[in-house]
Amino acid sequence: MAVFMLMIDVTIVNVALPSIATDIDAGSSAQSLIVSSYTLAFACTLLTGAWLGGIVGRRTVFVTGMSVFVAASILCGAADSPTLLIAARVLQGIAGGMVSAQTVAIIATAFPRERHSVVFALYGATAGGAAILGPSVGGILVSLDMFGWGWRSVFLVNAPLGVGAMVIAAASFSREKPAGVQRLDVLGVVLSTLGLVLLIYPLAHSYEHGWSIGGTSAVLASLAVLALFVLHERRWSRAGRHPMVRVDLFRQRTFALGCALSVLMFGSFTGFFFTVSLSLQFGLELSPMRTGVITLPFAVGAAVFSVLSPTLFARLGTRMLPLGFVLFGVSMMCFAALTYREDTAHSLALLAPPLFVGGAGIGVFVAPLQTTIVSGTDDTTVGSASGLIPTVQQVGQAVGIALVGLLFFHRLPTLSDALPPGSTGWIAAQPYIVAQRHVFFVLSAVVACAAVLAFALPKRVAGPPPVPVPA
Questions:
Q1: Interior angle at CA 177, CA 173 and CA 181, nearest 5
Q2: CA dihedral (353, 339, 265, 294) positive or negative
Q3: Among candidate residues 261, 238, 263, the one with its CA nearest the CA of residue 248
Q4: Count of Cβ atoms closer than 10 Å to residue 421 Cβ
Q5: Is the dihedral angle over the CA atoms 132, 395, 67, 167 positive or is it negative?
Q6: Is residue 182 within 8 Å of residue 51, measured between CB atoms?
Q7: Contacts by residues 103-106 (CB-CB < 8 Å, ≥ 24 positions apart)
Q8: What does the pLDDT profile of the chain (471 residues) look like in tens digits?
Q9: Would you give the DSSP letter of residue 456?
Q10: I want to staple 188 with a disulfide (CB 3.0 to 4.6 A). Which of 35, 148, 224, 244 is the partner?
Q11: Domains in the chain: boundaries
């Protein structure tokens, strides 16, 4: 329940963005930060949350984090300005990272080692499925307008679910504290967080305010800070301490390539839904409900092929990863082709097949991803490798939203200025349609390159060693 709720909050807000923008006057930069601030805070908190769970106990951190998450969700639902909503989303992401960090350790403790590969495959499928279902669920909630909440319901719905998760956790989780906790890498936390913020914020800020010397300086500074982070992690590890990121893991080909492919897929997928939700509602003027319904075939395709993925993985091995990229790329190109005419762009019957294919691509990619990434690890490194996977995915989503949003919003002003005065209907929708088509073309090229890169993986990989059970 907790994993599903935390992951669905990554994408559930996408369909609500147009309503949020209208209600609280959120510009394009604010819209991007409403989404990316959550994923960025989530990613920066995961490793710290795992350490904190080792100090005070998994149960305590889980329940406390969930209570903060519920409170932050209520603050999101009550926000009356973009600044307050973004601040509440940051708090929500921090709390979500704290909760999510405990789940791997709790699951590893609750199930015998021989069942870990199956259990963690289900864990990954749950997390991925929640993110994919987010736009559809968000569209339904906004359209139902329960109690007159409108877009606020996508946040307020977390309250009863979160309380339920807290009650279950308080009653069933062990109160024991892990032994032998390592010293927290405080400087690593600061450097990684600062580096990512310096990278993401100027990209989002440039949507409305243009690119500036300050923005360029911040991005360059982020690269320098992240380089310092890598150097610090190496020194920390050589000193015999427990680093946030074991840099030596990236010397393993399957791990390094798997993480790179994860960033590319999750960044592309999240950016895809971010811009599609805006184009369908601001451009084609579809309701949140219809937007959610249009994206539903994507979720169905992902669900079907997630179920089929174990059988496919036994036959295809890691070739499922390039297959996932190819299917997603074909989906976007077909979607782009349908946007050249008004009748096809509005047709759910015609949009459903390519969206189903795109979801199938995500389904065949996500399920074998963790097995592939940790296949080259041993008993001493599998825990660190498994802990890094959700962090890499969240960072990929935050960066993907920022970069895809920059590409999308960079095109809009020029296209809008070229419209004849008084344009309405299909003509008035063209700036969003053309900008979306441009995003599709670029993302299709990215996933095509990623598919080629995925062939560098060995076709067959060994099953991962069991994740060490925390003491």
A1: 135
A2: negative
A3: 238
A4: 4
A5: positive
A6: yes
A7: 103/2, 103/3, 103/62, 104/50, 104/386, 104/387, 104/467, 105/50, 105/53, 105/58, 105/178, 105/470, 106/58, 106/62, 106/173
A8: 677 787 787 778 888 888 999 999 988 888 888 888 888 888 888 777 877 777 777 788 888 999 999 999 999 999 999 999 999 999 999 999 888 878 766 776 666 656 655 666 667 667 767 777 788 888 888 888 888 888 999 999 889 888 888 888 877 776 666 555 566 778 888 898 898 888 888 877 776 666 778 888 988 999 999 999 999 988 988 887 777 778 888 888 888 999 999 999 999 988 998 899 889 988 898 888 888 888 889 988 988 888 787 788 888 888 899 999 999 999 999 999 999 999 999 898 999 999 999 999 998 888 778 778 877 776 666 666 767 777 888 888 888 888 898 889 888 888 888 888 888 889 999 999 999 999 999 999 999 999 999 999 888 766 555 544 444
A9: T
A10: 244
A11: 2-454
394-404 burial: b if 16+ Cβ within 10 Å, else e: bbbbbbbbbbb
Q: Write the CB contacts of 239 (distance below 8 Å, at least 6 apart in sequence).
A: none
Classified by CATH at the fold level, domain 2-454 comes out as Growth Hormone; Chain: A; (1.20.1250)
- Write phi, then psi, for 173 (nearest 5 degrees): -80, 150
Give φ, ψ of 71 to 5 degrees: -60, -40
425: left (phi over 0), alpha (psi -120 to 50) or beta: left
Token readout for 124 is 């990954």
Report d(CA 37, CA 200) in Å as an integer: 9
Placement of tokens 């669920």 in the chain: 137
Q: Quick one: tokens of 292?
A: 């959610």
Give the other-Cβ count within 10 Å of 239's Cβ: 8
Q: Which residues contact 465 (CB under 8 A, 6 or more apart)?
A: 374, 377, 378, 379, 382
The upper half-sphere exposure of residue 318, i.e. CA atoms within 13 Å in the direction of its Cβ, equals 25
Retrieve residue 17's tokens. 């963005």
Compute the half-sphere exposure of residue 208: CA atoms within 13 Å on the CB side of its CA: 11
346 contact partners, CB below 8 Å, separation of at least 6: 284
